[in-house]
Amino acid sequence: MDNPNSRTCPKCKKIFSWDSMHCPFDGERLLTWICNKCKAEYSLEMKFCSIDGNPLDFDVVSEKEKVLLDLSLGHLKTFRLIITNTKLSYLRKEIMLSDINRIRWGAFLYYVNAIRHDRKYTIWVSDQKNTIKIECGQIVQFEKNIVEKYEQILDVLWKKVCIRIINNMFDSIESGKEIQVGDVLIKRDGIFLPLKGVFFKTGKHEFHPWRQIAYHSKEGRLIISSKANQNAITKLSYRDVDNVHLLKVLMDHAR
Q1: Predicted local distance difference test score (pLDDT) of residue 18
Q2: Cα distance between residue 103 and residue 89, in whole Å
Q3: How far, in Å, CA of 193 to CA of 232, rounded?
Q4: b vs e for 65-86, b when ≥16 Cβ sit within 10 Å of the residue's Cβ?
Q5: At 6, is the pLDDT very low, low, confident or very high (cuts 50, 70, 90)?
Q6: Residue 206, number of CB atoms within 10 A of its CB
């Protein structure tokens, strides 16, 4: 790095500099820098020249905390959901957004004799060790209010988490690696689908290139099958299997 007053964005590795900045104050100050590439915000500790006020050097102190969503999902304080640009907090648990590698969501409507008895709008986020379950209907309220909160949460998580995971999935496939979602294995040139027997799955997988793959959504599940073998098929629940929503996006663009 030729410029001594340059640093690298910890998130996207873009190099930035404060060469052209002038400040009339001496000593040290905390300023905010926003990366033009990934839009991450950081607090910078600046050191200025006491003679001309120009910056001498700076250090990245930390990524600036910014609240993106603050919702009450129940009567108790523990049901308060807070999502910042770096982490998600709920039910006295915290998870870093950058560590989330699995996500799923879905609505469950329970009817008895055509009368609705229960409804759940649930989101699960997980890292390597922990899972946080977010239930949007903890208290009695109008359906549209529950759905509004549900969609607000998903909107933030889609932008801050899902897009990153999808990009990582694409990168893995392009580099020749396999990725697994539920009971399917996805490669650059096709998919390994489970084989079903007369009553149950056989535990075996069969590879099929993309041109032989058909898929559609039905009754809350992503159904993936082979045009060449009717026994090569899987039905992945959007609500119960991690990353199925993201797999659908990947398949839409990978063919």
Answers
A1: 44
A2: 15
A3: 6
A4: eeebbebebeeeeebebebbbb
A5: low
A6: 15
Q: Quick check: 11 and 85 in contact, CB under 8 A?
A: no
Cα 37 → chain centroid: 19
Mean per-residue pLDDT of the chain? 80
pLDDT, one tens digit per residue, over 128-145 is 999 999 998 766 677 888
Instruction: Report the C-alpha gap between 160 and 102 in whole angstroms.
Output: 13
